[in-house]
Design goal:
Structural class: alpha+beta
CATH superfamily: RutC-like
Order of helices and strands: EEEHEHEE
Radius of gyration: 14 Å
Pfam families: Ribonuc_L-PSP
Shape: globular
Number of strands: 6
GO molecular function: deaminase activity
CATH architecture: 2-Layer Sandwich
Family: Belongs to the RutC family.
Protein name: L-PSP endoribonuclease family protein Brt1
Largest sheet: 6 strands, mixed
Organism: Talaromyces proteolyticus
């Protein structure tokens, strides 16, 4: 049976205790939980628009990935959740500045509601 190891870094927002892990490492793969644009120092959702919050989501995921012993360049799959597809273009204008020339595969969907009333949440899978 494969082992799984929880990832916990103070450089990203703390997970809700007893509910989920920031990420799990299993079989050389890092599965990151969804990240919203919470400032890891204040524990509060950052101010700004979907662009600012997209940057913060990716910054939080980067910190978790580094805590797991990998980095953003090793991401192979991304899932983006938006509160409204009207935010698609603005989110993409930030998103495309990450991951170099070879982007990970991706899904982007609109959902009815996101945690804390935010407009974007992003999760990813990376290799070690």
């Amino acid at each position: 049976m494969a082992t799984k190891t929880a990832v916990l870094t103070d450089k990203a927002p703390k997970p809700l205790p007893g509910i989920y892990s920031q990420a799990i490492i299993a079989n050389g793969v890092v599965y990151c939980s969804g990240a919203v644009a919470i400032d890891p120092v204040t524990g509060k959702l950052i101010e700004g628009d979907v662009k600012a919050r997209t940057h913060q989501c990716i910054k939080n995921l980067t910190a978790v990935l580094e805590g797991a012993g990998t980095n953003i360049d090793k991401v192979v799959k991304v899932n983006v959740f938006l509160d409204d597809m009207k935010n698609f273009e603005a989110m993409n204008s930030v998103y495309t500045t990450y991951w170099g020339d070879v982007k990970p595969c991706r899904t982007c969907v609109a959902v009815k509601q996101l945690p804390l009333g935010t407009d974007v949440e992003i999760e990813c899978i990376a290799v070690l």
